[in-house]
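User: Before I run my own analysis I want an independent prediction to cross-check against. Here's the chain; please return only the structure tokens and, at the end, one sentence I can use as a sanity check.
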Amino acid sequence: MTVPIYMAAFVCTAITGYFMDRFSHKRGLVLACWMGVALICSAAILGVYSFKARYVLLVLMAAGLWSSNALALSYASSTFGAFPNETRAICLAFVNAMGNLASIYGAYLFPSTDAPKYMMGFGVITGKCALGVVTYGSLQFLLKRNSR
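Assistant: Structure tokens:
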């Protein structure tokens, strides 16, 4: 059951990486779009009861989250490129650490008492994706305006 999830995430991450190397000035916008896809899928999972539909939404949500994870690291690296090496290293370490926090709190968001809907877990994912859409959308706008 995990193979389709990781295959879809791999394909979407590879395609996103390829195109973002060519259109690097759109990284913030694409990040906001991938987070929006994950947000919509996570919110839809909360309202859908069909196992097959939830699984398809989970595959799409994971593809959006994994694609945005890889892109966020390259976006941070290119955004902080004008800073000294030490500052850029600290910023990248911070971004990586924040991205990996899900490994710690994620196990506690889906307790067996919440089965089968897991409202708390998918609610938190939906909220964090909404924060990501706002953050990366704002960064795209602000960085573009400041570069002029």
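Sanity check: Residues 51-79 form the longest helix (29 residues).
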